[in-house]
Specification:
single chain; 266 residues; alpha/beta; Rossmann fold; five-stranded parallel sheet; four-stranded mixed sheet
């Protein structure tokens, strides 16, 4: 789009031709890939929204996930599937077409199929990730892997909940020393870690409640309610166990910050 506008500015193309080219780009960005009368892949979502299409494996037949993932990789050079169980991950890796490779992240439940020459575009965004406990790590890993695929640099500190507040402060020092633009905090149980972190830093914080804990709050309701009732302004909250959603939001924020940082440094 920028190239077309520059050509128009230089007089290399007419206003009418520039308009036609821009209309074509707009149409292409809305185009779907219809796969075997089964699903419509939003193949240009990344260009349109900044967030790549992700195939949610949960609730789908394994063969559907494989078909959609490989089709996406062929179209865009990369396909991403989330909530992938280990057996499916193994089968995807085994069936990956020639000219592609599968990056399997068991803890994150993510599989990424890429062409051998695919390079993830870097935005310069910097994201910190913290977990309250080790039981929260799988959700944090989902956020970490997806944010990296959105072009950000990731720094993390796990098992730093405020049951030992010295751990929290030490971890924060490390993340702040890396000049992160936003912090994702993953927590279950009473989930006061993201509230505490937000009260200590001048950065946007994204809370991810997890389905970790005992009794009535054990499915994530208690941590979700705790975060939503936070008295620390500047804390955003995503749905229970939604590491991918947190990574999407954090990456958009960090990417925009990096853009202005780079402009200011020129």
């Amino acid at each position: 789009m920028r190239e077309i506008l520059e050509k128009l500015k230089e007089g290399a193309i007419s206003l009418e031709n520039a308009e036609k080219e821009l209309e074509k780009i707009a149409f292409d960005r809305m185009k779907m890939q219809f796969v075997d009368r089964l699903a419509r892949l939003d193949i240009n979502r990344s260009q349109r929204t900044g967030i790549p299409e992700v195939i949610l494996a949960q609730g789908k037949k394994d063969e559907w996930v494989e078909k959609l993932l490989f089709e996406m990789a062929k179209e865009k050079g990369r396909g991403i599937a989330s909530r992938v169980h280990p057996e499916l991950a193994y089968n995807i890796a085994k069936k990956t077409p020639q000219g592609f490779k599968a990056d399997v992240h068991i803890d994150a439940k993510i599989v990424i199929v890429k062409s051998l020459d695919y390079k993830t575009p870097k935005t310069g965004g910097r994201i910190g990730i913290m977990t309250a406990g080790t039981a929260d790590i799988s959700i944090a890993e989902e956020a970490k892997i997806f944010a990296a695929e959105m072009g950000c640099d990731i720094f993390w500190a796990y098992d730093v909940g405020i049951a030992g507040v010295h751990r929290t402060l030490e971890a924060l020092d490390v993340l702040l020393s890396e000049d992160v633009d936003v912090i994702i905090v993953v927590a279950g149980m009473d989930a006061v870690l993201p509230i505490t972190v937000r009260g200590l830093v001048n950065l946007p914080v994204i809370g991810v409640p997890t389905s970790v804990g005992y009794g009535i709050g054990g499915k994530g309701i208690a941590p979700l309610m705790t975060m939503l009732q936070s008295c620390s302004p500047g804390l955003a909250v995503v749905n229970i166990d939604n590491g991918l959603g947190a990574a999407s939001f954090a990456s958009l924020v960090a990417g925009r910050v990096a853009k202005y940082r780079n402009t200011a440094n020129k």
